[in-house]
Amino acid sequence: MIYSPAHAPSFDLGRCEAEPIHLLGQVQSHGFVLVLDENETVVAISGNLEALVGRIAQQAQRPLQLDDLPEHMAELIRDHRADVAEQDDSPGVYCGFCDCGPDGQGRTSRYELVLRKNAQGLLLVDFLPWVESGARRNEAVWLQHEIHRMLNTLSRLDSIERFADTLATEFKRFSGYDRVMIYRFDEDHNGEVIAEALEDGLEPYKGLHYPASDIPAQARALYVSNRVRHVFDVEDVGEALWVNADQPGPVDLSHSFLRSVSPIHIQYLKNMGVRATLTVSLIVDGALWGLIACHHNSAKAAPYAFLNSTKFLSRIVSSELVRVIQHESERQFDLLAEIQTQLIGKMNRTDRFMEALVGPQPNITQLLNADSAMVFFSSDVFTIGDAPTKEEASRLLAWVKAQVKPSDMIYTSTRLPHEYPAAEGFKHVASGVIVLFLSFDRNDAVMWFRKGVVETVSWAGDPRKAVVADPAGQMSRLQPRASFDEWKEVRSGISRPWTAAELHTAKSLRNPIVEMTLKQGVLLEKLNQELVQARNDAVLANQRKTDAISNMSHEVRTPLNSIIGYTELLKYGKAGALTEDQQRYINYAADNARHLLSIINDILDIAKIEAGSLALHREPTNVVAVMDESLMLVQPLFNEKQVTLGKTYRDETGLVVHGDRKRLKQVFVNLLSNAAKYNKPQGGVEVKLYLETVDGRRYAVIDVHDSGIGMSDDQLEKLFSRFYRVESGEHRKVDGTGLGLSITKQLVELHQGYIQVSSKLGIGSQFKVYLPVSI
């Protein structure tokens, strides 16, 4: 026989991690699957497809070709197969509708065809059942509207807790499932339901934890490569995949919407009382951060438009999640950086700087939100807070030294008694630790401690019984646990986790301390050599970062400029007339593309300035001419904002500087644009150019004075910080990256100039740029 049913692999539920879930040899029976090779030979065909197109596979005396299928079906596939990309995470190529039948009972059914390539280079053809959209006339328009509304809501949130709660509520509305959970993985791959939206009468799962064995490693890997997983009915017995005898191995169905589900997972869902599921991946930095897990109490089919939109949502929501995570991290980074600056300033004001580390705040415990700390330096030990004894800490330091490489210089743990059994005796004061070596040879180090906490974890069922014996008592037959009742576990010897910002801050404290010890001649030459090497490594790393950013910017800007160009063509009707909605969407796309290009250019400028690789093309430059060109560029913005613009030039012939014309124009345009964007309706901006002598040196002064919203003293202090933006009232939505003024200040300083700012809240601001004139 040319074709025969694929043999489903045998499963040992005790070894769930090894289950080949992408090679099950079955598909969900509400649709069907066809698999073709590059020669249009039918490699595999699902059994229910045969029922609709004739029992061709069982009767075939030779391998089937695409032309052996019904003509309308073959033409539809052939017309679109050239558009299929190599295996990736795209939603596939949509072919349209295909009517199949009649089946054995004389019925004809309509299906949507979707083409994808798998890792074996085979063409997967999914026949998804056509699902009526009910009262909605245009499913695609409704989905687009809901996605836009959801993303608009999520884009305004800046905490993970609020983001997760809102996402659960919005996705339930979007999908129509009875229960929607936001599920987050920890560092050990255990999961926790951190947010939930559900129908009345359902038992809440929020706050419950699930062991890593519930979603084993190969399932997590598949969620990364295939972002959407839909199970229409757990009671579905599935359809066998009939495979060509010449096929060398099982057919990989990883990217098929209809791939059958592991019998282990099916039993797990049945035990939970779930009938249909939809699972959407949340991916951060290429790793599986969590899932949007949807449960339904009855069978629930999904059309391709919905599945495709959900896959798109997975990408966009993941990007928004990255933004929120970065925002929370940056907020902590900024807070710790401020404390560190105060601490270093305090150390610089005394000769006994080691004592300053453990003295009144700011001190090293406040810096990392630790409960206690110790400093080992030469023969001295300095302690703050309720810490281990000197002997206990000394033995711990010796043990840590044996665990890390000299080049690492740092060790961290949040479960010290589980890694260093001797810590059991002092876990009440030190279950978490950071050890930062100042000198590896001399055992000079700073140690931060966090107390052990007694933590109660609520599991969805006993995690020790993730796999249990068959109810009939046959120990050779195992199945997923049947109970998901809340099961509480009490943990000890574990501290609050150290965040990435805290670890970074600890590492960055080493150099200031070492520099101070070098000034006093305390450390050995060995330590000086380590610093030199560290500096060289940092310079090299910074150069590599700059090179990487430069290459990335080039790779991104080229297609981005292409996108901008094509959207402009669409806007002006080069591809035909657009509807009002289409025109609005194109405008959104073009504006956002230009905004993204501006961000890329700003980041590239910052990277070049940091690396010292920003070359200035200096020449005698007339400030008046550059300002006039800049005023012409920003005049449309002033007109749009209804802001008047006045100018006064004095000493015009002497306003010549030795500078880079392009970069000076960048400075002027930034100052003028800000003066317009942060102004009041019917407000004004006055530009003055004149010469001024400061400390015996002549400067060209560029004075930009506006009648805008002004700034408070707190805002002025942060004004030139990267990514800082002044927000007030209706100006909260002013476009910008928060990099413009930081770049402006550094460009002015590269011209041996400086910038001064004065401002009064509600009255206006004045920026004065001083550039040395050519001699």
State the main characteristics.
38% helix, alpha+beta, 24% strand, single chain, 775 residues, 19 helices
Tell me what you see in this structure:
38% of the residues lie in helices and 24% in strands. The chain is an alpha+beta fold and 775 residues long. Strands 1, 2, 3, 4, 5, 6, 7 and 12 form an eight-stranded antiparallel β-sheet that branches. Strands 10-9-8-14-13-11 form a six-stranded antiparallel β-sheet. Strands 16-15-19-18-17 form a five-stranded antiparallel β-sheet, sandwiched between helices. The chain is globular, with a radius of gyration of 33 Å. Residues 11-16, 464-470 and 472-478 have low confidence and may be disordered.
Overall pLDDT confidence: 81
Which structural class do the helices and strands define? alpha+beta
Share of residues in strands: 15-25%
CA gyration radius, whole angstroms: 33 Å
Number of helices: 19
Distance between the termini: 94 Å
The largest sheet is: 8 strands, antiparallel
Number of strands: 30
What coarse outline follows from CA principal-axis ratios? globular
Unreliable runs, pLDDT <50, ≥5 residues? Answer: 11-16, 464-470, 472-478
Helix content: 25-40%
